[in-house]
Design a protein that fits this description.
By secondary structure, the chain is α/β, with parallel strands linked by helices. The chain contains twelve helices and eleven strands. It has two domains: 2-105 and 149-204, Alpha-Beta Complex (Spore Coat Polysaccharide Biosynthesis Protein SpsA, Chain A); 106-134 and 205-318, no CATH class. It has helices at 13-23, 58-68, 87-92, 115-125, 127-130, 158-163, 175-185, 206-226, 228-231, 234-254, 264-283, 286-312, and strands at 2-7, 30-36, 48-52, 73-77, 81-83, 100-104, 107-108, 144-146, 153-157, 189-192, 198-200.
Length: 318
C-alpha cells in the first residue's frame, strides 16, 4: 500500500486539483493524507484523510502524517503538484530491489501555468539556469542512482524513513537533502526515474519566486559546510563565482582597467543566455524565452548573494 502525503496550510485550489488527479492514477491500493494547519472535518474525497498539525512547517507535517500512514511506501507530494496517471506504477517497479530506499522523478511545469510561471520554470529547465539539476524539471536522461532529490516528487520505504528518523525539522528548505543523505549513509540507494512525472505549478509572482531562490541559496551555502558529502559541488558555487567576477570587473572598470580579455567571460555568458532563450522559445513561446534572459541573470545574482551568506552564517534559522 502507498501513503501519499501532502502538507499544506489549508485546503486550496491546488489541492482541489491534485487529489482528483491522484484518484485517477493507475493504482488501487493507496491512501491520501493531507496535513493542514487547522482542523478540517470536511469529507471531500474518497481514500483521503485530513489531519491538523497547527502552524508547523512542511517537514513537521510530513513526519506527523507518517504516524498515521498505513502504507509501506510513502509518496511525498507538494500541494501544488499533481501526478501523471502512471506515476506510481513507474515508481513502484524499482522497489522490487530491497537496496532501493527511494525513487524520485521530475516535476514539470504544467501547460496551464501563466506566462510568468512558465518563465520561472524555464529558468530551471535551461542549460545555464538549471545546469546539472535540469532533470528535476524535465523528463530527461536515463534511470540512474542519485544522492539528493526534492520532496515535490519522492517515494520512500516507510521502514527506512523511520530507521533514519524521518525529516530533520530544523531545516526548510533542505530537509529533503538531509533525508536523502541519511538514507545513503545507511547504505541504501535512491533512484531517478524520468517517467515518474508530476506537474508542478511554479511561483506566480516576482517576489514569491525570488524569495524561494534566496531560500535555496542560503540553505545550500550552509549545507556546503554542514553536509559537504552531497552539497560541496562546483555548480553550487558558480552563481557566487560569477557574482564575484562582476564585482571585480566593475572595480577594475572604475580604475579604468578595461582590457577586452577581462570581458570575454561576460560575453560568453550573455551569448549562452541568448542561446538558452532561443531553445526555451521553441518549447514555449518567444515571450517566455525572452523573459528568461533577465530572469536567469537575476536568479544567478540573488542566489549567489544568498549562497555566500549561507557560507558565512554559523547557524541556520528555519
Amino acid at each position: 500500500m502507498i501513503s501519499i502525503i501532502i502538507p499544506v496550510r489549508k485546503i486550496n485550489k491546488y489541492v482541489q486539483e491534485t487529489v482528483p488527479e491522484i484518484l485517477s492514477t493507475q493504482a488501487e491500493d493507496f491512501e491520501i493524507i493531507i496535513v493542514t494547519d487547522k482542523k478540517d472535518d470536511a469529507n471531500r474525497w474518497p481514500k483521503t484523510k485530513i489531519i491538523s498539525s497547527g502552524e508547523k512547517g512542511p517537514a513537521f507535517k510530513r513526519d506527523l502524517a507518517v504516524k498515521y500512514a498505513k502504507g509501506n511506501i510513502l509518496a511525498f507530494l507538494d500541494d501544488d503538484a499533481y501526478p501523471e496517471k502512471d506515476w506510481l506504477k513507474n515508481c513502484l517497479k524499482h522497489f522490487k530491489n530491497k537496496k532501493i530506499a527511494a525513487v524520485g522523478g521530475p516535476a514539470i511545469t504544467p501547460s496551464t501555468d501563466s506566462l510568468f510561471q512558465k518563465a520561472s520554470g524555464a529558468v530551471s529547465e535551461s542549460f545555464i539556469g538549471g545546469g546539472g539539476a535540469r532533470n528535476r524539471f524535465l523528463s530527461i536522461g536515463n534511470t540512474r542512482e542519485i544522492d539528493d532529490w526534492p520532496t515535490v516528487n519522492l517515494l520512500v520505504r516507510k521502514n527506512i524513513f523511520e530507521e533514519v528518523g524521518g525529516f530533520d525539522t530544523n531545516f526548510w528548505p533542505g530537509e529533503d537533502t538531509k533525508l536523502c543523505l541519511d538514507i545513503l549513509n545507511k547504505g541504501y540507494k535512491i533512484i531517478y526515474e524520468p517517467c515518474a512525472i508530476v506537474y508542478h505549478h511554479r511561483r506566480n509572482s516576482f517576489f514569491g519566486y525570488f524569495k524561494q531562490v534566496g531560500n535555496y541559496g542560503i540553505h545550500r551555502g550552509f549545507f556546503v559546510k554542514k553536509f559537504p558529502q552531497t552539497s560541496f559541488r562546483f555548480w553550487y558555487f558558480c552563481p557566487s563565482l560569477f557574482l564575484i567576477y562582476l564585482v571585480t570587473l566593475s572595480l577594475l572598470s572604475f580604475f579604468k582597467i578595461n582590457h577586452f580579455l577581462l570581458f570575454i567571460p561576460l560575453f560568453i555568458y550573455l551569448l549562452a543566455l541568448i542561446i538558452d532563450s532561443l531553445i526555451i522559445s521553441l518549447r514555449y513561446k518567444p515571450l517566455v524565452g525572452l523573459l528568461t534572459i533577465p530572469m536567469i541573470f537575476l536568479t544567478h545574482f540573488w542566489y549567489g548573494i544568498r549562497f555566500i551568506q549561507g557560507l558565512l552564517i554559523k547557524e541556520l534559522k528555519s
